[in-house]
Amino acid sequence: MTYEARIETPSAQPVPAPMVAADELDLAHEDRASARRVWLIIAAAAVLLIALWFFVHRNDASGDAGDVAQQAATVTVVVPGRATIAGAINATGTLAARRDEPIGSVGEGGQVVDVRVEAGDWVRQGQVLAVIDRSVQNQQQASQAAQVQVAVADARLAQANLERALKLVERGFISKADIDRLTATRDAANARVNVARATLGQLQAQAARLNIVAPSDGLVLERRVERGQVVGGGAGILFRLARGGELELQARLSETDLAALSPGVSAEVTPVGSPRSFTGQVWQISPVIDATTRQGTARIALAYAPELRPGGFASVVIRAGTVVAPKLPESAILSDNAGSYVYVVGPGNKVVRRPVKTGVVTADGIAVVEGLTGTERVVLRAGGFLQPGETVNPQLAAAAKQPR
């Protein structure tokens, strides 16, 4: 039995496209979308930057010259004008006696038996301050007084002998030579009287020098001797006296301040610890400047007052005259090796360096005696950070804006 095998070949069917191609297409679409988003972000940022740039430059363009000036350094300026400035020099110094008189023993010395004054007492010229034992000197004076009497008696006898001889010479009983001899004897006796009296006076003077006396009227500043103490000539100072009670302040000043003073200038002295001030005047200016400190001494005379104690410390304000000049705060005045200067705001708000010469220093400013007329706009502070020619934004100081 024969079998035929039939093989039916299926008709050709369309083959579907691979799935990979579809995935790639989706990825391409997504890449294009991402790229668009990136470009959109970049474009937005660019637009924002451009808008910001235009905003900034639009503000600059809309401003005037004053807005440009605001970008420069802002400085405070002042127009000082001119004023009458009372000169005042502030200093400190030491109180002392104007004429300090040290007193010691000028005699041969001895033991002190009496002290009659204390520190702080007022004394008169010739007043006894202390007494030294003079028992030996008194005996010497008594002995010499007796010698004077002996010499006087001898002189009387010699005079009587001469007078009798003169009566006899007329009768020829005594020669002329005898008269000459008796006359010489009388003259020698009289001379011995004078010598004895001079010696007695010397002893009395020596005894008187044992008294320590005041050489002038004044105030006793120190007492350095006590009863029972043994003193002698050249033993040192026993008392210190302020002649007339006059005191002074010895103020140390710089060369510049000394040059501004003259004798007779008034001053106000305030001792440390005292609320009271005392008026005095400069009576002497030091002719010598200390080579080390570059200072000299102004001596200010003061009348006596209990609050003024020699050796104490005091401050003084010396009236050094008046000047008419611009006055600036200390912050406005600068200095370097070339000297003092200020910064002036000139045309176009440009900074200009102006050399100046300063004068009187007061509590509220310094006088500028050269370099300014008073109408300039002077930089009040921060001048050390400026440079000549720099453009600034000047602002008038508040105090200068207030009406006078």
UniProtKB/TrEMBL annotation:
In this chain the CusB-like beta-barrel domain maps to 249-320
State which residue ranges cross the membrane.
Answer: 38-56
YknX-like C-terminal permuted SH3-like domain location: 327-393
SUPFAM superfamilies hit by this protein: HlyD-like secretion proteins
Domain CzcB-like barrel-sandwich hybrid residues, every copy: 110-235
Pfam families per record: Beta-barrel_RND_2, BSH_CzcB, YknX_C
**One example GO MF annotation:** efflux transmembrane transporter activity
Alphabetically list the UniProt keywords: Membrane, Transmembrane, Transmembrane helix
Example of a GO cellular component annotation carried by this entry = efflux pump complex
The record's InterPro entries line, in alphabetical order, gives: Beta-barrel_RND_2 (IPR058792), BSH_CzcB-like (IPR058647), RND_pump_MFP (IPR006143), YknX-like_C (IPR058637)
Q: Which family does it belong to?
A: Belongs to the membrane fusion protein (MFP) (TC 8.A.1) family.
Entries under PANTHER family matching the protein: HLYD FAMILY OF SECRETION PROTEINS, MULTIDRUG RESISTANCE PROTEIN MDTA
Q: What is this protein called?
A: Efflux RND transporter periplasmic adaptor subunit
Q: What species is given as this protein's source?
A: Novosphingobium piscinae
For this protein's source organism, the top of the classification is: Bacteria, Pseudomonadati, Pseudomonadota, Alphaproteobacteria, Sphingomonadales
